Queue: 4 jobs
Job 1
Amino acid sequence: MVSQPDAALWLIPALPLATAAINLFWGRRLGRWAGWLASASVIVSFAVSLAVVSQLVAKPADDRLFLQHLFDWISVGRFVVGMDLRVDSVSATMILVITGIGALIHVYAIGYMAGDPRYGRFFSYMNLFVFFMLMLVLGANYLVLYLGWEGVGLCSYLLIGFWSEVPANAEAAKKAFITTRIGDTLMLIGLALIVFRFGTLDFEAVFGTAGTVLTKDAATAIALLLFAGAIGKSAQVPLHVWLPDAMAGPTPVSALIHAATMVTAGVYLVVRSHVLFELSGVALTVVLVVGVVTAVYAATCAIAQQDIKRVLAYSTISQLGFMFMAAGMRAYGVAMFFLVAHAFYKALLFLGAGSVIHGMHDEQDLRLMGGLRRLMPITFATFLVGALAQAGVPPLAGFFAKDAVLEVVQHSGREAVYVLGSVAAFLSAFYLGRMLFLTFFGDARSDRARTAHEAPPVLWAPLVVLAVGAATAGWLNLTPEGRLTRFLENVTGVTPAGHGVAVATLAAVATVISLVALAFTWWIYGSGRVEWIGFRERLEPLPRAALNGWYVDRAYDTAVIQPAKAGAWVAAYVLDARIIDGAVNAIGGGVKLLADGGRHLQTGFVRSYALAVFLGAVAILVYVGVRS
């Protein structure tokens, strides 16, 4: 039986929305308090979320659902869409991640953004970001979800280009907005098909009748169109190009986008719509292939980046690929488990990178760092936990999450996918080790590195909390049946099982992969041995290609952007200015010539008019004569 929780669901998104409005209009007057107000609203929202989730968990497993109808949003004949909120096991998991990790990022931003002239506006945008993401995951129908979907796109544009006085930042914001619009447009077409087929956008109605309403081809079309939206938002190949450039925004923005909000939206969409994807083997195969290709491709790019934030950007793209791999294998609970674990260690890594940048006086180049573990011990210790967690070192969170994905793949019998996933896991440990050794080990390689300082408590306190989460989040699924995936089963279904190598053997293999990659990274980047430095230099052409994302951006520029610009120039200056405007101007010119000719006939002299009458009479007589 569907019921409502004691705490109103609407409070969860309403609190950040209210403080977003307050900071937008009065943030300048509030000064430093704007940050604390914004943080407090997300913290209280997290507390309300905890209360709601605790009530949900107390219910029987097959009855874990809260619905709240706020008002009718659209009512046209029989087509009615309500502003309805929904909490089940999937959305419950998401709201805890969004508000919990979002609150820590907000607190961190209080110190990181101190002194910025638009301090209040920044926190207004951050709160608005959290609001829209909460609406996305709490919506009980696709229209409310789409409201949040477009809202996070808008907020990412505002925050990536927050320092828009720098032209590159403004360009990065536009690139993110336009690239994600491609996927959003295709997703909107998918939603239109859902309305056409079902006459509603409500999740319960759509999922409850999908098996009887949709043909296989229709299910494939809808699922692929929805997945196109997920590809854009979650920066998967081929719409991944916006995310590395999105590092132009302030570091707390990067952490919020990568860990708690925007890029996880695509994974949530696929998990939420899994009933539609289940009806199409083609769609699930596409999800799997895109996930595998993205995981490997982005990992190869990450190993060559020199900017600490761009390493993490490509890292996120690769990690999201693992989540889509799990979803493509019908292991939706595993995808959500990976999402939760990733949120902790990726937020930790981004905020740790921000602490390094702050201590290095805004320096982001790994080549100019080194030796920071002695000058920034707290940042180093927490960053180490985050790096080892993502690398998959047991017993940290990433080990359990990545192992769960590879286990599902191996048990399915898809050996090629398992091998590629293992390669991506190896590369993940490699680029994290490289970043760790270049940043914190060896000798300082610049004056800024030699004069670096530890971050203030408002910056490192959230790092400590996140480090605990990155170390222990994997325990959420530690029991043999998987505690978190079991909690999600009433929505996602049972994670598929198969026959293959024993779980312990797979875990041992995953551990060896991570440790070998870290050891290899140490020999190349941490040991300082001459032969490894020479080896690194001989590989230079390959890293140069990876540094540039294997020139995908350049290919898009050559194949799409420049032809589009040329087409726009032709349309503006040839078709419009010469042909269309030319035709209009020619008509106007002809009328003007006729008018000028007529004006010459109007002389004002009687003799001219008499001559005209005479010629007219002669013409009439001639005409009559000819006719007769």
Job 2
Amino acid sequence: MPERAAMNPYDWIAGHAARTPDKRAIRFGEVDWSYAALAQEAARLAAALAASGIQRGDRVAFLGLNSPREIALLAACAHLGALFMPINWRLTAHEQRQMLGDCQPALLMLDELFSASRASLGTGLPDATLVALASAPPPGWMADDAFIARGADVATPTGVGAPHDTLLLCYTSG
């Protein structure tokens, strides 16, 4: 049997997009994302992350409900060799602040649902890029469209994430 090349999630999505671009990759509620759409969003996010200075080994935190965007962000982190840290939205702000203080992410992204109620999470992260997926981000936070625009003039970065790299950083209660 031929040996398969090791792949990370970004490579896996890009491979499916090349072979079956119109095939459904994600169904989320009433919205379907094809592999081509998922690969395109992951590439846009990887370019924006790279333009924001995210490098291999950096941590990228996300506070939001499950969404296709979260999957694309995970893939973008894999491509760059960054660690993706989903934050449990059910935790208190105090608990979330403790986790963020411990991991010190280089970028924190808030879903629109949490952009107002959890904007204070950014105060303990003076060196982090703060991105809010909201049309009117809180003071000190960058709007999502401005974040994506950072990467618009950047070619999709060459992947530096290796299949054996740590990708997911999860905090648990036990």
Job 3
Amino acid sequence: MEVNDLGFVAIVLFVGFPTAFLFIPYAKTNA
């Protein structure tokens, strides 16, 4: 359970952080 939770958190951070970093300027440009 702990391994799955840590893996899930790692995936969320690894994928979500760059996505948000790229998406925020894109959203500001279109807003």
Job 4
Amino acid sequence: MKIWNTLGFIAFVAILFTSCDSGRVFDDNKTIVNDAWYFKNTVPFEVQVTDTNALYNIYVNVRINSDYKYSNIFMWLNTTNPEKKTDQRRIEIRLADEGGKWLGNGLGDIYDYQFPVFQKIKFPNSGFYRFELEQNMRDDTLMNVKAVGVRLEKAVE
């Protein structure tokens, strides 16, 4: 009987946390196979934007393990709008401080980061936007990157 109470509580907390994220429009992470991100392997995300009057925040998500050998990660964020116009932005996400302490949210040896790329922007057109993440580090194959993702949320005005 106690196990059912525990499971019920866990389910309630999970529902509570997911329902509190009312600003989320899109939030998806994709696993990097074998934790090895080859520089030619772009990670794509398709996002449908319907409200062109709203302000949005765009974030890049990164998950690494503690064996990642750098204190940062550079990547390209390639964006294609519904009219097929493209934009490329190089971003740097700082993962550790000068002393080597990981800055992300950690559980065990896994660390999660959410980096703001755009704040309070408007999309000029409705339709599908394609975001692609591409690693841009010195290593052809960047080891110990577990997942990357994109989050789009409506900004609080």
